[in-house]
Design brief:
Shape: rod-shaped
Radius of gyration: 30 Å
Distance between the termini: 23 Å
CATH topology of one domain: Four Helix Bundle (Hemerythrin (Met), subunit A)
CATH architecture of one domain: Up-down Bundle
Order of helices and strands: HHHHH
Length: 212
Amino acid sequence: MERTKIHPYIKIIIAAFFLLLFSAILIHPFIVGHCESMRLSGGILLNDIYLNTIEYRLMEIEQILSLQKEKKSEYQKRMSLILKQVGRKQLQYESLSVSDEEIEAYENFVSNWGNYINQSKKNIVLSNENNNDQAASALIRDLSPVFETSNQTLRELIALNTKNADSWSGFIKGWIKEHEITLIFLSICGMTACLIFIFSCYEESRIYKNLK
């Protein structure tokens, strides 16, 4: 009974599959490191945004309490610059891969921050029209609770990002450490299988050519 032979090209395909599979296992720690780096980047961006929001609030207070037009204009320019910085950092954060829970918390912050900024701009108009008493009153009575709500949602987002980063990092590192020997063994087996397939294909191809 004649033995069924596997076509050399099929063996090459199988060998390539094994090579890709076990190469993925080998580079897995590097991928994990990249993901962890992205998590850390997200935390840095969120903390920068938090500092920017505090700075904006301080400039807003200075602008409204100032009685000099030149100073008001200077503070307002700095506020506009801070808003641009926050916008750029938000775009960078949005490009990162985060959990659904974190996305929901971020959208909550964006909504509250947008509400605060809209009211803040209206109050700045009052200040520029020399309605200083009205603007100062609104600054404390109306804007303070809105800013605190926005700030609270941002702090919750930062805490969630930190928790997710620690959880992700700990899980991956623990999994790699626990399965380190297995991963090494599978990698060696995979590379050995690839070499056997490639050598077998080469031998069969050589024999096939000699028979022609």
